[in-house]
Amino acid sequence: MSIQGTCAPQFSEVRAEFERNFAERGEVGASVHVTIDGEPVVDLWGGVADPATQRPWTEDTVVHVWSCTKGATALSAHILASRGLLDLNQPVSYYWPEFARNGKENVLVRHLLNHSVGLPALRDWLPAGAFYDWDVMTSALAAAAPLWEPGTRHGYHGLTFGFLVGEVVRRVTGVSLGQFFEKEVSGPLGLDFWLGLPEDLEPNVAPTIPVDPTQPGILLPSLFITALTQPESVPGLMLLNNGGYMAPGESDSRAAHAAEMGAIGGISNARGLAGMYRPLALGGSYNGVRLVSEEQIPQMSAVSVSGLDAVVMVPSRFGLGFQKATDNSYLAPNDREGWLVPEEAFGHTGMGGSYGFADPKARLSFGYTMNRQGPGLSVNERGQSLIDAVYRTLGYKQTGGGTWFA
Questions:
Q1: How far apart are CA 193 and CA 177, in angstroms?
Q2: Rounded to 5 degrees, what are φ and ψ at 289?
Q3: How far apart are CA 69 and CA 72, in angstroms?
Q4: Residue 106 in 3-state DSSP?
Q5: Could you tell me the CA-to-CA distances from 94 to 91, 97, 120 in Å, in that order?
Q6: Distance CA 340, CA 331 (A)
Q7: In the chain, domain spans
Q8: pLDDT exceeds cutoff 90 at 2
Q9: CA-based angle 209:69:61, to the nearest 5?
Q10: What is the pTM of this model?
Q11: Which region, left, alpha or beta, applies to residue 308 given φ > 0 means left and ψ of -120 to 50 means alpha?
Q12: Residue 292 has pLDDT above 80, yes or no
């Protein structure tokens, strides 16, 4: 397998693990990017972008990054908070008056960000294509009653997070979430990262290769098992009541790529993910572009909720919009996927294994994307091997569960 790009000699172990992913772990096409002190030390890509045509993965190849998109949406909210335009402790209704219905009158903006608002799914069945109509989704969420009392527990809002937080961003700024992100983040930083992909860039997208649950050794997480066997459960509603978005192949349609979906719709590559987090690893700014104040970083990285997740049914930890390290290695084999990074790190994973994060203590940013998905929502062995190689290179050590520390 031909690997392209550059890698600083001291990070040669990252390149070695990237190569092993192709040789031993079933990687098809992928990219990885790492910056230290703002400088790229790893920028690698390789493999096949589209097995149907054997189109190679090139420097400009992008892919659907699924829930890594939540990092972009959360960042947009924190940019507004840093500028004093959004108070995370204000009721959502202060910015979005229609939201104050059916038990949501006292919901705070922070409840949207930390997955505790109780709207991971809607009870009423959504029409086909609902996720491609912003007004349909935000109106439905504004009218809905929560599935639990807001603020009393947390559960992963895997598909609704972007509409909830994104509508607050839209109400504050007067522009759509995708437009705001392009103006304030991806444009100034020069990132290949879109919430709503322009049609002329479709040829650069690597189609998703979903996991085949019938293959030997594939263990589906409890979330998926429950959704398939109990369609009226919260996991079932989340994965089935989405206007057909989660139907096989739909997420790679032009309609899906064009839509602004701040939970799951982002299109990017490793360079784009690492580039978004680079300023956050450096006190909030990079190369003259300030995203947030230095004082905002601790609010972004601090744990806000932790414990058993009411939706994915395994422990999870969230800050205000970002994931924190979670060691689930002690669980049943189908639920062991976690995200093993130092406590200072914050970012977001994407379904099947992509991820991006910042580590302010190490002054590090990281991105990894691929087209062949793993079976879970979090980091699998391909991605974790790259994380581990970086932190070993930096001289970090691991706890018994595998989490890294300086």
A1: 13
A2: -105, 110
A3: 5
A4: coil
A5: 6, 6, 22
A6: 15
A7: 3-74+179-405
A8: no
A9: 50
A10: 0.97
A11: beta
A12: yes
